[in-house]
Amino acid sequence: MAGSGSGTAVCDWPTLDELKQVLDITSDDWEVTAERVLESAIFETKLRVGDWDEFLDEPDCALAQYALRLAELISLRPEAATETITDPTLERLMRGHRRKFGVA
């Protein structure tokens, strides 16, 4: 991410084609739904980082992969959209990226 000092490579957010490949979607029948899921996953990724600045911040490869994995989970387990997802891969990808923590 720009400005984070993490030293990791900047990557683009995942594309609709990437998500369709992960989900093995070969027709355009689900394109609108898949796009909505991907945009939601990217938005949620930014929320989980906290204090995301659209003008300064860019995803590194771990955050881009986090958004793709989250989109996959939301697609395969729709109930995941309303619950906290506990996934070891997501936890590893988010490690070191959180800027804002909830207060108990």
Task: Describe what this molecule looks like in 3D.
The structure is a single chain. The chain has 104 residues and is mainly alpha-helical. It has one domain. Helix content is 47%, strand content 0%. Helix 2 crosses helix 3 and helix 3 (61-76) runs antiparallel to helix 4. The chain is globular, with a radius of gyration of 14 Å. The two termini are 28 Å apart.
Summary?
By secondary structure, this protein is mainly α.
For the biggest sheet, the summary is: none
Order of helical and strand elements: HHHH
How many structural domains can be distinguished in the coordinates?
Answer: 1
Helix content: 40-55%
Query: What is the distance, rounded to the nearest whole angstrom, between the alpha carbons of the first and last residues?
Result: 28 Å
Shape, principal axes of CA atoms: globular
The unreliable regions are 1-5
Please tell me how large the radius of gyration is: 14 Å
Overall pLDDT, averaged? 85
Beta-strand portion reads under 5%
Number of helical stretches of at least 4 residues: 4
Number of strands: 0
Structural class: mainly alpha
State the oligomer.
single chain
How is the topology of this model organized?
Blueprint: H1 16-22, H2 31-49, H3 61-76, H4 88-94
Task: Offer a few descriptive terms.
104 residues
